[in-house]
Amino acid sequence: MSVDATLLQSLVESAPDGVVICDAKAADRPVVFVNAAMAKLTGYDADYIRGRNLRFLQGEDHEQEGIEKIRTALRQGVSCQTMLRNYRRDGTMFWNELTIQPLRDANGNVTHFAGFHREGGDRLRGLSESREKTDPTLSTQTMLAYLRDDKLTGLLRRTYFDELVKRDWGLAQRESRRLSFLLFDLDCYYTYKETFGKNGSDQSFKRISRVIGGCFRRASDLCGRFDEDQIAAVTTGLDLAQASKLAEAVLGRVRDLAIHHPRSIVSRYVTASAGVVSLVPPHDAAPERVYEMALQALKDAKELGRNRVVSREAD
After folding, report:
1. Partners of 275 in the beta sheet?
2. What pLDDT is attached to residue 65?
3. What are the strands, taking DSSP E only, across 122-210?
4. Cα(280)–Cα(301) distance, rounded to whole angstroms?
5. Distance between CA 287 and CA 299 in Å, rounded?
6. pLDDT at 148
């Protein structure tokens, strides 16, 4: 049974997922067709997308495993499925779960590539919450690459934490919502590692991480492993005084663990210091600037004797 071409176009135009078709023979594989769902997903209108290579959706975020997978598929003229961090017109990040399919002419030559795009954030959250279940639409390698949890601490991995911060940052900018960034670092932990070795220090850091993570249980809270011995958290709706009080409570919880530290210059037990920065994100600022300020506040806390909080209101 033949199907009218107009009917097919109408079907694609009304599809719930984003659909694009790119010219495989043109040098930069520009988009030649885009449906309404793709425009809605990205925030860019169809006229803007047409004629461009879709890499513009990556912004400056080009170090992603999925990008090489796409390049290989395009080079070999085969289909692939992957997930990328893409950025909407308003700057917010979203996980783009995409499938690429080659389109061939009567002689079997690839003339175009069709791309099918959908919001993949819910799928990633489902993967992280239920690791034992597999998703047949994603490869094992892709699933492992995007699992959100740090293997030792159970907190968010740094890369995933950064992405969620970018998401919340964009929301806070649009809604004039206050964010507070809290950065914790264990005091004299280098000498603790020398004393108890990797296994002993890892077990202690795991216990401490669970205690700190337990202080950030609101649905809007983020808590992740920021560096080897650092843990970061982001909260919404707290002013500087409230965020500082929360950081003090966290340091108290760490002390309450009473993890013996024979070489600490601060206490008989493991302690931590914290840097806190609070602000309503301005529209011309990026979260990296707040990271720098929190690190400086943390450094000041160390220089003032450790086992304390230094907090600052960002300009």
Report:
1. 183, 310
2. 73
3. 179-186
4. 23
5. 19
6. 65
Q: Taking the CB of residue 307, how many other CB atoms lie within 10 A of it?
A: 21
Residue from 99, 143, 150 nearest 125 by CA = 143
pTM of the model: 0.57
Nearest to 208 by CA among 138, 258, 140, 148: 258
Q: What is the pLDDT of residue 145?
A: 43
Q: Which amino acid is at 128?
A: S
Which of 87, 236, 242 has the alpha carbon at shortest distance from 176? 236
Among all chains, which residue has been given the structure tokens 């806070």? 172
CA–CA distance, 84 with 310 (Å, rounded to integer): 37
How far is the C-alpha of 182 from the C-alpha of 221, rounded, in Å? 11
pLDDT for the residue numbered 137: 46
Q: In what order do the strands lie in the sheet with 179-186?
A: 222-227, 230-236, 179-186, 272-279, 309-313
* C-alpha–C-alpha distance, residues 154 and 211, integer Å: 11
- The span from the CA of 30 to the CA of 74, in Å, is 13
**Consecutive 10-residue averages of pLDDT for the chain (315 residues):** 61 84 93 94 94 92 81 88 88 88 90 91 53 45 54 84 88 92 96 94 94 90 90 95 97 97 96 97 89 95 97 88
pLDDT at 296 (0 to 100):
96
Going from the C-alpha of 184 to that of each of 256, 266, 306, 311, the distances in angstroms are 16, 16, 11, 12
CB 256 within 8 A of CB 212: no
Cα–Cα distance for residue pair 115/19, rounded to 1 Å? 6
272 - beta bridge partners? 186
- For residue 207, the surrounding DSSP H or E stretch is helix 189-213
